Write the structure tokens for this entry.
Amino acid sequence: MTPTLRDLFRCFQGVIPSIIATADATGLPNATLVSQVYLVDDRHVALSCQFFNKTRRNLDANPAVCAEVLDPATLQAHRLYLRFLRSERSGPLFDSMSMRIDAIASHTGMEGVFRLLAADVFEVERIVTVEGFLTDPLPNEEVEEISLDGVRSELRGVQIISDRINRAADLESLLDSVLDALDQYFGFHHTMVLLADGDRLVTIASCGYGESGVGAEVAVGDGLIGTVARERRVLRISGLDVSLRYGRAIRREAQQSGSVVKPEVPLPGLADAQSALVIPLALGDRLIGVLAAESKLALRFGEWHEAYLEVIGNQIALGIDRMQERADESVPAEPRQQAPPPPKKPARSRTLVYYRNDDCVFADDEYLVRNVPGRILWRLLKDWRERGRTEFTNRELRLDPTLGLPEIKDNLESRLILLRKRLEEKCPDVRIVSTGRGRFALEIAAELRLVEK
């Protein structure tokens, strides 16, 4: 039975490079490797037009092409006999292919050099399975392990996520419960949420990593995550390691030819990730943040996950926005004053240093936090030292002009979460504890030496 293009969907995930063969007007052949053949629909595929000048000239003279693709689960080879139709330099297909290439280029420091010139569209005239290519196919259980099939119903999944968002008491519990649901019900074991803060994204919650990574930053436009934030569109990459090696190979060639390239952008998360699915969290034109999932399996995420998580991403964006708006409900206008706590012998001593030029705070010579969270922490610590205060409100922070919070959508709640988690990881003797909606307390279990530079 002749397979269809849909039957070969694993071959189009970019896990194993494909071979394409063309010929010029005289029949002289030329073969080259391409990182990915893109599935367009049931009758068409596309190739990225980037550097292959010989292939480009051959297509202009002779539209017949043969592409050999491999199934990464079974290693079975299939040959696609194609006919070149057209080159697209704009439109949905071009944008989708270009975004994937731009993300890899940005990550490997090749932005502006490694880019899509056109999406070459081909009609598939015939599909031939290469008989005798394998003597012993892989066992079925290994194929099933990297299957792209969804294991939960879409409706049930939306219900679970929506219920957790609605039940969340605050932003921190909302993010943690959503990531836990993705881990528990969908097997997405490595996920993170980064929230927009000006021209950067800051990791505010994560699941499945040895260290939480909270506080890690990505500039909008940099790498996979930054590209998704800039474009506000979903990015799914299978065989990530293959794509990055391809980009790095182009980078080396560019360096050897004397071209100036940017430094590679480190990926927050798994160092050995093989696939990634990155979802923008947006409300209209306003970027809330990014939801990123990654896996050590090359074929972990498929079209089903892409469409499904986009719906869930909209739910999360709405939930985050709602939580940030209601964070100050039922809070008195003035903070409650209290007497200094009775003296007690601290368990240890710590030195916290605040640098005014970039609002950076170090705890015992180790980086803790910077920017707005750094200003907030230093303001709380000075109030504690000078006035003996330990209880504060979100509202008073919003009314404090020295903190420089934006008048609209200041993301104060997320900044407090970031500060709380960074203290738990790097300076556990200083804690920020919620005491009610829009209220929190500062708990200090060490002798603090505060230094300002």
About this structure: The chain is about 35% helix and 30% strand. The radius of gyration is 26 Å. The longest strand covers residues 77-88.
